[in-house]
From TrEMBL:
It comes from Schizophyllum amplum. It comes from the Eukaryota. This is Deoxyhypusine hydroxylase. Pathway: Protein modification; eIF5A hypusination. HEAT repeats lie at residues 77-117.
Amino acid sequence: MAAPDRPSPAELKNLEATLLNTAGEVLLHNRFRALFTLKALKSKAAIDIISKGFQDESALLKHELAYCLGQIKSPAALPVLEAVLRDRTQDPMVRHEAAEAMGAISASSSLPVLKEFLADADRAVRETCEIAIARIEWDASEEGKKVQQIQADPEEIPMYMSIDPAPPTSGLLRGAPKPEDVSAVNIAKLRAQLLDTKLSLFERYRAMFALRNIGTAPAVDALADGFADDSALFKHEIAFVFGQLLSPHSVPCLLKVLEDSRESEMVRHEAAEALGGIATPEVLPHLTEWMKREDCPRVVRESCQVAIDMWEYENSNEFQYADGLGGGSVESFETVGA
């Protein structure tokens, strides 16, 4: 998506004040809207403003800052992302997202840094670095270069605008799924690849995003089977994919994840945001309940707050979700960070 017209210095200052909550009274979901407005600008000024937010108390917000820096896909964001990854005082969810963003930017100079953290104490950070390394290597491969050339064509319209941690499997890299792609046989094959713990996470993620691109109810069911995995990172990506698909068929399994107090906060928060994007009537009471519950982890409560704002947007007449410059000039709602 093309960046909107260059904002004025006053508009940038207002976005910065909203994102960083300089007045101390900006609601979290409004800070998210300012963040996604800045993301759409894709400018050095936007990167600089976003980068100032990593001192915030909210791990959810900082995780989203890292996600947006990765989606901007500018090497100018690499120094701050590397600093966040190296900062062990940051929540692992934030560090993992910084590593994932480095993979999205896909600079070969990030490889030595990512390899340093393959033995990190936190499993989600280790696994994210593994996937990010594989993503950068795939982008440099013959297949990866060919896909990038195709994507550079202004006439090429991708199914999803996001830069994902892994590309779909080769047959589903571009265009609408073909009849053989949506067959029961192919979905079963992709499900087997998704759930095969002997494979690399990168290869399993490729099956995950292929199933997303298929998007049928059987594909959703295959993805939902991934919630039985023991990797919080893997399960949180399943929830993120459901937030992209926006299929009401995924609501029951997402509600089950959200309400499971034994599940990782990382997974529950992503389930909450997916439910907010799907925005069917039955999800709102659940999001409201978990936003208010004192026994609910902060990152899950905050995710429910943001998800309720997403739910309200989806059920409103608003044209744009991230419209911090006014006039509908930025971008419509997209899934928040993986």
